[in-house]
Write a structure and sequence with these properties.
Largest sheet: 8 strands, parallel, barrel
Bound molecules: flavin-adenine dinucleotide
Structural class: alpha/beta
Radius of gyration: 18 Å
Oligomer: single chain
Strand content: 5-15%
Strand order of the largest sheet: 1-2-3-4-5-6-7-8
């Protein structure tokens, strides 16, 4: 079944994993996946490195998800970085041959020192339009959205207009960037609905596991805010052991997931960070373990 169709009927549960580097074994990730499958996720998405350097790897992981004892839908992330039309066509045919028919179509982060994508497309909307032109409805296509505005966009209005372009180009659902500020998320959700973006929204949940990772993800990479309750949590547990900090972070994440569930969203997408224990504990704490 197509994921956005499920989202119209009920809230989906899904996980994101990332492939190991080329010279690292796949087995640890396969072991993480084996722990996640019993949750019966509606899908598992796999990131791809900017520039597609480990593209082979993320396809291998999508394939292993399809071949699991209790398979689920793999979603392959795919970026415009360094990609030309012929190469994209070939990769997409390979996906279809393997049975991978769900994609997250992205521009990708521009590698340091590059001007633009060095490929045929500058923006995700162009990639989505191309995929629709070339492959019709053979793929379900997800697009990314940043509830606190993409860091490069000058204004919310501009960013939301670009989101609308991605929907109009043929995206079927929207997967969000992390957002620890649920109030800001609500405002953004209202704004995108006003802008005519009607596709289901799948909320990306970044578990709070270490203070370093929260600070890096919010301030070092994505221009996301650390709202007062999270700032307070970090301060209160600043000198705690890693284990105690994680315990407090997991409790915070559980409360936040409940707030998101109350918004009538299309799905919850957990950034697993390739760590099964913490994500499973969060799912358990949010009453999602009935799916097992
Ligand atoms: P776009 O939609 O192209 O937007 C990028 C910027 O350009 C925005 O500021 C937008 O407002 C602007 N823009 C869009 N269209 C136009 C236009 N026509 N004219 C002018 N400006 C325009 N990155 C990876 O490298 N690999 C991954 O696997 C990966 N997975 C991700 C998963 C999720 C759920 C999310 C939310 C992000 C992920 N990213 C990943 C990060 C993503 O690639 C970056 O956020 C990237 O900087 C933007 O990608 P995009 O698809 O949103 O780009």
């Amino acid at each position: 079944m197509r994921i956005p169709d499920i989202m119209k009927e009920r809230m989906t549960l899904s996980f994101e994993v990332f492939p190991p580097k080329e010279d690292q074994p796949l087995e640890p990730l396969l072991a993480v996946l084996d722990r996640l499958y019993p949750m019966q996720p509606d899908f598992i998405s796999c990131t791809c490195g900017a520039g597609g350097t480990n593209a082979g790897r993320h396809m291998e992981i999508c394939q292993s998800i399809l071949e699991a004892e209790n398979p689920t839908v793999p979603i392959s992330h795919f970026t415009c970085i360094g990609r030309h039309k012929d190469d994209i066509r070939e990769q997409m045919r390979r996906c279809l041959d393997l049975g991978i028919d769900h994609l997250l179509a992205l521009r990708g982060d521009i590698p340091a020192g590059w001007e633009g994508t060095r490929g045929d497309f500058s923006h995700a909307s162009e990639l989505i339009g191309f995929l629709r032109e070339e492959f019709g409805d053979r793929f379900v296509i997800a697009m990314a959205g940043a509830p606190e505005k993409h860091i490069e966009a000058r204004t919310f209005a501009e960013d939301i207009a670009h989101l609308r372009m991605k929907q109009d180009a043929g995206a079927d659902f929207l997967m969000t960037q992390l957002c620890y500020d649920v109030e800001r998320f609500k405002e953004w959700l209202d704004k995108i609905r006003t802008a005519g973006i009607h596709i289901p929204v799948d909320v990306g949940i970044m578990p709070v596991l270490t203070k370093k990772s929260v600070i890096r993800m919010c301030l070092g990479m994505n221009g996301c805010s650390i709202p007062q309750p999270l700032a307070e949590l970090i301060s209160r547990h600043y000198n705690d052991s890693d284990e105690d900090f994680m315990k407090a972070g997991i409790e915070f994440t559980i409360r936040q997931v409940y707030e998101y569930m109350a918004l009538g969203i299309g799905g919850l997408h957990f950034y697993s960070l390739n760590k099964a224990d913490a994500v499973l504990e969060i799912c358990e704490g949010c009453g999602l373990s009935h799916r097992k």
